[in-house]
Amino acid sequence: MNVWEKLRVTWTALVQVLRGLMRDFGGYYLSPYPILLIIGAWSRLVRRLRGIWLPRGKGRPAVREDLVDLILDMKRANWAWGALRIAQELALLGVSLHKKTVQRILRENGLVPPRTRITPPTWSAFLRTHKNLWAIDFTCIFDSAGHQVFLLVVIDLATRQLVSLNATLNPCRQWITQQICNAEMAGFRLPDGLVADNDGIFGRWLKADFDALFGIKVGHIPRGMPWLNGICERFHRTLKSEALARILPSDIKELRELCAAFQAYYNARRPHQGIAGVTPATNYADRPNNTLLNGRLRYRKIREVGGLVTRFELLAA
Question: pTM surpassing 0.85?
Answer without folding.
Answer: no
